[in-house]
Write a structure and sequence with these properties.
Rossmann fold, Hect, E3 ligase catalytic domain fold, 4 domains, four-stranded mixed sheet, 18 helices, flat
Length: 588
């Protein structure tokens, strides 16, 4: 009796519209008829709509199909695809996937191409055609980029949103009357004053200037990054630059790309009106080059701002960072503080928190609270049970996945526009207008993709930072068990690394309370066992929760030593030993 052959059907289109003359439904219909003609039983159908064939990664249905093949649960013999290009356009991906399928006894049939990998010539044809498909995809990209470069050479705006100070009308750059004043002020202040980039941004923020919000811009204030982008863009002297940023493959990866700023790039004369003179632009570049040097750390190289980035500003919510007060002539002692960068640096955000908090005081206070936590036996028992767990990164991964989905949608739109441009009839009386409109929309996708890729890079960096933290979650738990023994003997750099691995944020009061304790709330990176519950946030807002008593412990040095006293309810949990006696008071 002849064995009944089983198969999967796989279909894919880059966009919701038909590709190569066949929509998803048309592909499925043809594949079903082929299976029926060949007396095959279709076990499952898999379809990826709106996904590029550039690589296998990111196609959920293809991935699910390969997982089912590797599991062997359906015992299929073939995968049917309409054309090899629907299976993939990256030669390496196609051959690797095919090899995996054949390892499990499954072959590929490309119906339209007449290819069967189970036959002698089939795999050779797949190798050739997959390479051709990849070359075709790369040629499309090269031709598109060549078109953008040609527009730049001709002095035309070659796509994307108009830079600040200009507006786009019918593809032409025109000066925006409601934005141009800001551009002129930026260049004038940078050239004719001693102000740097931060100083120019601060001047704009402090003198009532506001930035027009457009595209993805949500900050009405002026940041140093915005000023830098204006000063470095030759468009303002009437030029068009090409290739200032390039999408390049990440070294060591097969298909991963990222945006790379270029040190050198061609500049062409533009058709648009200049806002500043070429001589002024050159003066700016000379000053930028003179100021663009890395400042070496001249203070104590062993000093680390332990809580920098963890402390949050009570006024604007941004992070507090380390600041240094140079040694006075009297005591020759360098002092270190925490301050809000928004009060000094130009970030585009307004902040009224003008206090500098002495680092030693804050560092001791946080360490004392942690010490009180870990000394309780119930805490130690609970933390031992937690060893082996990992920091939860699911929210970050979900955010990255959402950005991936957005990027795929943009790439799908690009592919759709490519096909529409390729399929335009050159004899059409409106051909030039149609191709111009499609090209403009196509160029816009590059800006959208670039913005999304920038966000993805930022989120991937944050995720990588969590995963590669020097002190892993297990090591943090282990360190907590021996906190009092190890922390005070560690270097400041090691203490900083521990705090960052252990604590997500520390909220403080806008003014120092009467009890002397700045800390309002501590949020941990992962759950901590407190009073029989796992919490990520430890509030210290109650007046009875924490009080500080300042005592003069050394009359010779006149050094203040602070003590935190926990209330009765908290003390039942955070009980510590002090000279052999139970106590709720401990030094900070």
């Amino acid at each position: 009796m002849k064995k009944q052959r089983k198969c999967y059907i796989y279909t894919r289109v880059s966009t919701a519209i038909q590709v190569d003359g066949y929509s998803l439904d048309a592909q499925k219909d043809k594949l079903r008829k082929y299976a029926e003609y060949q007396d095959m039983t279709i076990v499952s159908e898999f379809s990826d709509e709106g996904f590029s064939g550039k690589n296998i990664k990111g196609r959920p249905e293809f991935t699910r199909m390969m997982e089912k093949i590797e599991s062997g649960e359906d015992g299929v013999d073939f995968v049917l695809v309409f054309k090899l290009s629907r299976f993939g356009r990256n030669a390496a991906d196609v051959l690797n996937s095919l090899q995996t399928m054949q390892d499990y006894g499954v072959n590929l049939i490309c119906v339209e191409d007449g290819i069967d990998s189970s036959k002698d010539a089939g795999k050779l044809m797949i190798s050739v055609l997959s390479a051709v498909a990849e070359i075709e995809r790369e040629n499309i990209r090269t031709q598109t980029m060549a078109g953008r470069e040609q527009k730049a050479k001709e002095g035309k705006w070659n796509g994307g949103f108009a830079t600040y100070g200009y507006k786009l009308e019918n593809g032409q750059l025109l000066i925006a009357d409601d934005e141009v004043e800001i551009i002129r002020i930026i260049y004038d202040r940078y050239i004719h004053t001693n102000s740097g980039i931060n100083g120019v941004a601060s001047y704009l923020n402090d003198n009532g200037y506001t930035k027009k919000l457009r595209q993805n811009n949500t900050i009405p204030g002026f940041s140093s990054g915005f000023v830098k982008s204006v000063l470095d863009n030759p468009v303002y002297m009437g030029k068009i630059a090409y290739g200032r940023r390039r999408t390049e493959k990440k070294i060591g990866t097969r298909n991963e790309m990222h945006i790379v700023e270029q040190d050198e790039y061609p500049i062409y004369d533009g058709h648009h009106e200049a806002i500043i003179s070429e001589s002024d632009w050159q003066l700016v570049q000379e000053k930028r080059k003179a100021n663009n040097f890395k400042r070496e750390k001249v203070h104590d190289i062993e000093h680390a701002h332990i809580l920098s980035g963890l402390l949050k500003c009570p006024c604007c919510g941004k992070s507090l960072y380390g600041n240094i007060a140079k040694a006075h002539s009297k005591d020759k002692y360098t002092r270190y503080y925490y301050y809000c960068k928004n009060t000094l640096g130009a970030t585009g955000h307004k902040c009224s928190f003008r206090l500098n908090i002495e680092q030693t005081e804050m560092n001791r206070m946080v360490a004392a609270i942690i010490s009180a936590m870990v000394m309780d036996k119930r805490f130690k028992d609970a933390i031992k049970a937690k060893i082996g767990t990992a920091v939860d990164t699911s929210e970050m991964e979900e955010h990255i996945e959402a950005l991936c989905t957005q990027l795929k949608q943009v790439q799908g739109t690009k592919t759709r526009l490519e096909h529409q441009m390729d399929n335009l009839d050159v004899l059409d009386t409106h051909y030039k207008k149609k191709i111009s409109d499609l090209q403009r929309r196509y160029d816009e996708q590059y800006d959208k993709a670039e913005a999304i890729e920038t966000q993805m890079d930022e989120w991937n960096s944050r995720l990588l930072s969590v995963r590669q933290e020097k002190i892993s979650a297990d090591n943090v738990y282990q360190l907590l068990l021996a906190f009092d023994k190890l922390y005070n003997t560690s270097t400041e750099v090691e203490q900083r690394d521990f705090m960052r691995a252990f604590i997500e944020r520390i909220d403080i009061y806008p003014e120092k309370p009467d009890n002397g304790c700045w800390i309002r709330n501590i949020v941990f990176n992962f759950p901590m066992p407190v009073q029989g519950q796992e919490i990520k946030s430890l509030p210290l807002e109650s007046e009875s929760t924490v009080e500080t008593v300042c005592l003069l412990s050394n009359t010779q040095s006149k050094k203040k030593e602070s003590y935190i006293t926990l209330d009765v309810e908290m003390a039942d949990y955070y009980r510590i030993k002090n000279e052999g006696k139970n106590s709720t008071t401990f030094p900070v």
